[in-house]
Amino acid sequence: MSTATALAGRRIVVTGAGRDFGRTLAVRLAASGAEVFLSARTLAAAEAVRAEIRALGHEAVHAFVCDLTDSASIRACAAAVAERTDHVDVLINNGARWLTGPDLLAGSDDDVVDTIASGATGTILTVRNFLPLLLASDRPDVVTMVSACGTAGHDRSNAHDAFYAAKSAQAGFGEILSKRLRGQGVRVISLYPPDFDNADPLSDEWENTPREATDPLTAQSVVDCVLFAITQPRDCFIKAFHFEQV
């Protein structure tokens, strides 16, 4: 199966798709034949990525606003997607606020609340609100971009403690969700990458980035892991991808 048709007909929701790795996912999923429902904290950001993808000739892409710190916004996003489709095949929980600083006193109380709300509560509520659409699919997958920060004992990131807490919550949620949804045919897949290089998927750099054993992990390889997992036969439940950190 070619890359351009690997996901033909799949309907995929990507949160946090307005920039960085979420944008990369949206671009590559569309290139693989998926119909992409992308969301971002602002509608303008989602629409900008939609325009980029449509300029490449992929018309099956839709833009929505979804503030992962706002339960009403998450519900409204899921309802808006439900107006466009009767099912969703894949939900990718990519959106989460990054907060830097290995000093607990760095940042404000509001920064801490926002970080945990977007990564932890936001992920749970997104799955909760999209679950009816996923259960209407004959091949439902939930993919969560956790982070090595969600791995017990990891201490090699300069992320703030609140980011570690949010990612640990995502990890715990994915662990129990995988067990509880398997009986309904839903695969729950968590990825735990360390910090990785994210080249612009529309640039020459995307094709030319070194990917040897001594090189840092790349977005290309992380995307490849996602594509691999969601295109496996339904008897293949890949629960997690863990990556060595160079």
Overview of the molecule:
- This is SDR family oxidoreductase.
- Keywords: Oxidoreductase.
- The chain has helices at residues 20-31, 43-55, 71-84, 109-135, 161-181, 204-208, 219-230; strands at residues 11-14, 35-40, 61-65, 90-93, 141-145, 187-192, 240-242.
- The chain is of the alpha/beta class and 246 residues long.
- The chain has one domain: NAD(P)-binding Rossmann-like Domain (Rossmann fold, 3-Layer(aba) Sandwich).
- The longest helix has 27 residues, at 109-135.
- The chain is globular, with a radius of gyration of 17 Å.
Q: Spatial order of the strands in the main sheet?
A: 3-2-1-4-5-6-7
Can you name the CATH architecture? 3-Layer(aba) Sandwich
The number of strands is 7
Taken as a percent bin, the fraction of beta residues is 5-15%
Overall CATH class:
Alpha Beta
Keywords: Oxidoreductase
Protein name: SDR family oxidoreductase
Enzyme class: oxidoreductase
GO molecular function, one term: oxidoreductase activity
What are the key terms here?
alpha/beta; Rossmann fold; 7 strands; globular
In brief, what are we looking at here?
The protein is of the alpha/beta class and 246 residues long. 42% of the residues lie in helices and 13% in strands.
